[in-house]
Write a structure and sequence with these properties.
The structure holds 2 protein chains of 2 kinds.
Chain A: H1 4-12, H2 17-24, H3 31-41, H4 45-62, H5 72-80, H6 85-100, H7 102-122, E1 126-127, E2 138-139, H8 146-160, H9 163-172
Helix pairs in contact in A: 4-6, 6-7, 7-9
Chain B: E1 12-16, H1 23-32, E2 37-41, H2 56-63, E3 66-70, E4 77-79, E5 91-94, E6 97-98, E7 103-104, H3 109-112, E8 119-122, H4 125-138, E9 144-147, H5 158-161, H6 163-173, E10 177-183, H7 189-193, E11 202-208, H8 211-217, E12 218-219, H9 224-236, E13 240-248, H10 254-268, E14 274-281, E15 283-285, H11 286-295, E16 306-308, E17 313-316, H12 318-335, E18 341-343, H13 348-355, H14 366-369
Helix pairs in contact in B: 9-10, 10-12, 12-13
Classes of the chains: A mainly alpha, B alpha/beta.
The structure holds iron/sulfur cluster.
Iron/sulfur cluster (SF4) binds next to strand 7 of chain B.
């Protein structure tokens, strides 16, 4: 039986059957965390669904109950921060995503740091492919005169031989 | 470890009216013995068919113990559908059975056959043989690589049906056909009796994996060691053997376990006895995920570092996929540089990134990617469907 507080929330916001079904897959010991989440962060149904899916998948991955994933200390620490409700939501989701997809998060962090340092040194902002699928990087450049274009071309040439650019490709192609 | 499937696991056999007098039906019933409940069945429809989603998991389990003997009325020989924008290996499929009594956690048939879960064996095999023969003879310049393991395991029923006793000699006679029997069993007794008849036109292939995957996610299948022992016997009987690493799974320690499996292959067969080895990483249709979680709550396969791709399939992230394919490729090539290795349904970009070229570049895998018979083909065929 799902707790009254959770089922009231689902009824009030007319949650679909799929979400109601997901809630029943959580261990009853995780209900206090979900109840606290509903009170403190007042999430949308969509956000709630994302959090529950992450909890269930982490539990399946680690072979533990869903109650063991977010510790009381971690939850209190997120709530104690002087962030807005939305920021706290984001922080919780990011923490769970890192736990669910540790390699992906590590890859993204490494790519972001390379992209950032290339932007600082060469002035070009680069985009990696969506979901890291593919081997095409995108960069856009704008210029106000032929002279500016020429300057860009020179900077592009130095970017092309930068070792960090090769590292980005190596990461995307699983060579690292 | 789970136990291996045996024919005693079949509890009920439905015999459709049209199949009742077929010789194959009689043979199967005779071999199943008396411990099975036999039900005469007026129709050829799936007796466990259901559209109610809630019942499907229970029906699936029941379906694994229920067999329907019936006739097939569709097109026997079909081109494997492949995947858009992926390089296709020109395979044709023939299904003498539908559904599989083995129970791999990742099996796509769970989604595909969830409304019709009863195992089926088609008993009008003379018609199957005639269709295959006519089709191959009608296009003598085309090479047909024909596999029987699309809708189930090629050899799992062979000790009941003796299907291989007809198919192997048929392909031995057909100049432009190669038969591939793909299995996770060690059921090769019939094949061994055809030692002097197969003419090298049948490839017996085994789906292999890391040992822990075979133990936890391939329920009812023969253990890895027994598959490899069977491969050694088949190779000794003169068959070329194939291996399919499908699906390659990412888990902690995957390199060591896959390296170990690769090492074991070549402790059992020589590289020259290997017709081909295919590689594909775990991917599955989105619909399969919830079925896997419901039916196999202990399996870790649904929880890898995967994402939902545009084709609605869940795959590992590209950097992980490529790392795994490259590792497997290099390990295999380090044993024998010319061993024919190919990727099943991967994009040209993956081919380039891992092998350094498109499949046609490797002459050793022409047999797979070339649609023309040796000597009749210019090898300019479009590889992309
Ligand atoms: S052996 Fe093949 S067809 Fe049979 S359950 Fe496993 S994956 Fe499915």
């Amino acid at each position: 039986m799902v707790s009254t507080q959770i089922s009231d929330y689902l009824n009030r916001y007319r949650a679909d059957n799929a979400l109601a079904d997901l809630v029943t897959k959580l261990s009853p010991q995780s209900y206090p965390f979900i109840e606290s989440l509903l009170v403190e962060l007042r999430p949308s149904l969509n956000y709630l669904r994302q959090i529950i899916v992450l909890l269930l998948e982490i539990a399946g991955r680690e072979g533990v109950g869903t109650e063991a994933i977010v510790s009381v200390e971690l939850w209190q620490a997120i709530l104690a921060e002087k962030n807005s409700r939305k920021e706290k939501q984001k922080e919780l989701r990011q923490w769970l995503e890192t736990k669910r997809y540790p390699l992906k998060q590590a890859l993204l962090e490494e790519l972001q740091s390379l992209q950032k340092s290339l932007l600082t040194d060469h002035g070009f902002s680069m985009k990696v492919p969506e979901e890291l699928e593919g081997d095409n990087l995108t960069l856009s450049l704008s210029f106000a005169s032929p002279g500016e274009l020429k300057e860009n071309t020179e900077r592009l040439a130095s970017l092309a031989i930068d070792q960090r650019l090769k590292e980005i490709f190596d990461l995307l192609l699983g060579k690292k | 470890m789970e136990r291996v499937f045996t024919y005693q696991d079949i509890q009920t056999v439905y015999v459709s009216a049209e199949a009742a007098e077929d010789q194959l039906s009689k043979r199967i019933l005779g071999r199943l013995g008396t411990n099975v409940q036999i039900i005469k069945y007026p129709s050829s429809k799936d007796p466990l068919a259901t559209s109610a989603a809630l019942e499907q998991d229970a029906r699936m389990a029941e379906g694994k113990q229920t067999l329907l003997l019936t006739r097939y009325k569709g097109n026997w020989l079909k081109a494997c559908p492949g995947t858009a924008r992926h390089i296709c290996c020109n395979l044709y499929v023939v299904n003498q059975a539908e559904g599989c009594p083995l129970d791999c956690t990742y099996c796509i048939l769970q989604a595909y056959l969830r409304r019709n879960p009863t195992l089926k064996i088609y008993t009008n095999t003379e018609n199957l043989m005639a269709t295959v023969q006519q089709r191959l003879e009608a296009e003598p310049s085309r090479l047909f690589r024909v596999c029987t393991g699309e809708m189930g395991d090629s050899l799992v029923w062979d000790n009941l049906t003796d299907f291989s006793l007809s198919m192997v000699p048929l392909f031995a006679r057909l100049e432009n056909g190669v038969l591939e029997l793909k299995t996770k069993t060690a059921n090769i007794n019939n094949l061994l009796t055809l030692k002097n008849e197969h003419q090298g036109k049948t490839v017996v292939s085994w789906s292999l994996n890391a040992k822990s995957v075979t133990e936890h996610d391939e329920l009812g299948a023969h253990p890895l060691k027994e598959r490899l022992k069977a491969a050694a016997l088949a190779a000794e009987a003169g068959y070329r053997v194939g291996f399919h690493f499908d699906p390659i799974v990412h888990f902690s320690g995957w390199q060591d376990e896959y390296r170990e499996t690769i090492k074991s292959i070549f402790e059992h067969v020589r590289p020259s006895q290997v017709a081909w080895i295919s590689l594909s990483t775990l991917r599955y249709h989105k619909d399969l995920q919830s079925i896997m979680i419901a039916r196999f709550p202990e399996s870790k396969l649904p929880y890898g570092e995967q994402f939902l791709a545009k084709d609605y399939k869940i795959r590992y992230l590209q950097p992980i996929r490529l790392k795994m394919l490259r590792f497997m490729w290099q390990e295999l090539k380090s044993v024998a540089a010319n061993i024919p290795v190919y990727f099943c349904m991967e994009s040209p970009a993956v081919w380039r990134a891992v092998s350094g070229g498109l499949p046609i570049a490797g002459s050793e895998i022409k047999e797979i990617y070339c649609v023309g018979r040796a000597g009749l083909c210019s090898c300019n065929d479009d590889l992309r469907r």
